[in-house]
Write a structure and sequence with these properties.
Blueprint lengths: L2 H4 L3 H8 L3 H24 L16 H14 L3 H8 L5 H15 L18 E9 L8 E3 L4 E11 L4 E4 L3 E2 L4 H8 L32 H24 L16 H16 L1
Antiparallel strand pairs: 1-3, 2-3, 3-4, 3-5
Helix pairs in contact: 3-4, 3-6, 4-6, 6-9
Keywords: Metal-binding
Cofactor: a divalent metal cation
Organism: Candidatus Ryanbacteria bacterium RIFCSPLOWO2_02_FULL_45_11c
Amino acid sequence: MNITKLKQHPKTFTRLFGIEPHKFDELVMNIHPLWLRAESKRLRHPRKIKKGSGRRYKLTMEESVAMLLLYARSYTTHVFLSVLFDIHESAICRYFAKVRPVVESIFDIPTKKTDLREEEILTLVVDATEQRTERRGTDSGYSGKKKAHTIKTQIVVDTKGKIKHISKSVPGNIHDKKLFDNSGIKLPDNAKGDLGYLGTNITIPHKSSKLHALTKTQTLFNVRHSRKRIVVEHVFALLKSYHILADCFRGHLSHYHQYFAIVCGLYNFARA
């Protein structure tokens, strides 16, 4: 694949890789020192063969990053990527294993327990999304909502749609409230969520029942609440333009959260 030639067609490049050519160049520049550091660390490990022996990497760092972005964007098969980049199919996983942690590390999105700064917690929206997976062991759970085996991840966004926090990816049979409790993030009372967060300190809409219809005040509150909460649904829609987060996930589930974090990082990076 001739990446230099593709950069001459910005619209096509963006549709293929999810970011504009100048953003891609900036991303590669940011990755370069981390790539060299990771390579230096790899070469310091005890070796069975002499340093410098073995086959050379056929793809450059830029091509490796481009292949990862194309894979996340289209979620095509490794066979197709091997033909496109003129490498053997078995080498795809080795390239991805090398480039995934480096790309993930440059995006500063908290994934562990954290307290957001005061200026960041004025208005936040939290929600979780599920993605179908192939039936596995204990890593994916059967979701009664989706009627399939899924894996679930929670995100927190601000009113401008910037992702502020990502939870760990958990089996789909875990309830949203339990996922929120285990994520360790502390949100203010004015943070917005859906009815899945009933029992937390988050503001949720009023729920009607067969015996108790909503009053006009409660209905108006729900409408205003939905208008503020819709931003997280828009973010999910944009994240799922990367087919690796939209199609049935075929890969090893231990890699799923890394791909999710990379796509979220690319989303924030493209909007910066």
